[in-house]
């Protein structure tokens, strides 16, 4: 489920408070939006089929190559690995996006409708002006770049793959040159790799991100990564940000690219969560980079609960430094504080009107 990268390490993650999902949700205002039973059944089958098909294909190739190495291994696995490892390393370059797929693929449209997913208006004026400039100039060297820093990760980041199509609809000139950093493992899984590439993902390695920025692209980053994912608690708004300074430093080193803070209201409530075996699962995150989320969605499945999901964008932020492109540690630290303040302000500005007035943003 994790369609994002883990930015930095996940050390020193404190165990979440023992508040259960039920307790937290009882305290919070319901943000479910009304859907018919047919709509829920349709979403249930689409979401679960997507995960099941990807899992079945991957397991079939793996097990089949062991049982029938001369058939499955030679004719399917070896050609696929050769193609993805040596012939087409799109994830290490600029990806292989398919905007029409992200925007118009009917299951994605149905999933967006199920979650009521939208990017709140009005958009920041700076983004609208940049969209217009990018449209008029047509010159990549004059294109305005951004780093979109999205919080929180949530139990799964399904909203990311669905958000891609919305960006192509409302900011087409910016979106056409925007890539999303995603975990390297996603590009080793059949079908998952293709879905990731078609929806604008590239590998989350630092050199790949730098290459994309050097090529005039904007980036979508979910800085909290697995450290934030494992701490997700239904009914609470938790972001793992205190130790996440890499994306700020990246922006400052690459020409002071403006960072756009973004918050996804609703994604923390997409699944009921449990923190059972948290210590063991945290060990897996820290040592193996594997996040196992104990969660349940609609009718106990992988389909998220029908929670209205709204993405809000803050004003792009640039930072002060004495030498352009060479920020000191102190300047990065100060810039990080500015971003943290901006994210908290963005959350507090919108939480009341979106039904989250009783919640506080926990920055860890």
From TrEMBL:
One matching Pfam family: DAGAT
GO terms (BP aspect): glycerol metabolic process; triglyceride biosynthetic process
Subcellular location as annotated: Endoplasmic reticulum membrane
Main location: endoplasmic reticulum
Entry keywords, A to Z: Acyltransferase, Endoplasmic reticulum, Glycerol metabolism, Lipid biosynthesis, Lipid metabolism, Membrane, Transferase, Transmembrane, Transmembrane helix
Record family assignment: Belongs to the diacylglycerol acyltransferase family.
An example Gene Ontology molecular-function term: diacylglycerol O-acyltransferase activity
Bilayer topology term: Multi-pass membrane protein
Protein name as annotated: Acyltransferase
Spans annotated as Disordered: 1-29
Protein's organism: Ditylum brightwellii
Biased composition (Polar residues): 1-16
GO CC annotation terms, alphabetical: endoplasmic reticulum membrane
Pathway: Glycerolipid metabolism; triacylglycerol biosynthesis; Lipid metabolism
Enzyme Commission number(s) from the entry: 2.3.1.-
Positions of transmembrane segments: 37-61, 67-86
């Amino acid at each position: 489920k994790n369609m994002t990268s883990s930015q930095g390490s996940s050390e020193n993650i404190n165990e979440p408070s023992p508040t259960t999902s039920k307790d937290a949700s009882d305290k919070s205002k319901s943000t479910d939006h009304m859907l018919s039973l047919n709509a829920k059944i349709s979403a249930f089958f689409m979401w679960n089929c997507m995960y099941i098909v990807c899992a079945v294909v991957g397991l079939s190739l793996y097990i089949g190559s062991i049982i029938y190495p001369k058939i499955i291994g030679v004719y399917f696995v070896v050609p696929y690995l050769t193609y993805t490892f040596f012939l087409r390393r799109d994830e290490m370059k600029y990806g292989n996006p398919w905007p029409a797929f992200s925007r118009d693929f009917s299951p994605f449209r149905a999933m967006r409708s199920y979650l009521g997913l939208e990017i709140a208006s009005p958009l920041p004026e700076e983004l609208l002006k940049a969209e217009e400039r990018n449209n008029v100039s047509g010159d990549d060297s004059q294109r305005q770049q951004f780093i979109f820093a999205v919080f929180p990760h949530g139990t799964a980041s399904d909203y990311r793959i669905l958000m891609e199509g919305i960006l192509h609809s409302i900011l087409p000139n910016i979106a056409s040159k925007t890539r999303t950093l995603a975990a390297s493992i996603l590009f080793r899984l059949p079908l998952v790799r293709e879905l990731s590439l078609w929806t604008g993902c590239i590998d989350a390695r630092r050199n790949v991100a730098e290459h994309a920025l050097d090529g005039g692209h904007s980036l979508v980053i979910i800085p909290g990564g697995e450290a934030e994912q494992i701490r997700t608690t239904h009914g609470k708004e938790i972001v793992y940000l205190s130790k996440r300074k890499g994306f700020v430093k990246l922006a400052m080193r690459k020409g002071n690219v403006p960072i756009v803070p973004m918050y996804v209201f609703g994604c923390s409530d997409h699944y009921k969560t449990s923190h059972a075996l948290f210590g063991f699962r945290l060990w897996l995150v820290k040592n193996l980079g594997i996040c196992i989320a104990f969660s349940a969605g609609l009718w106990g499945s992988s389909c998220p609960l029908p929670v209205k999901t709204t993405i809000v964008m803050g004003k792009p932020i640039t930072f002060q430094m004495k030498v352009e492109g060479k920020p000191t540690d102190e300047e990065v630290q100060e810039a990080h504080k500015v971003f943290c303040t901006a994210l908290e302000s963005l959350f507090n500005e919108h939480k009341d009107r979106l039904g989250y007035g009783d919640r506080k943003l926990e920055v860890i």
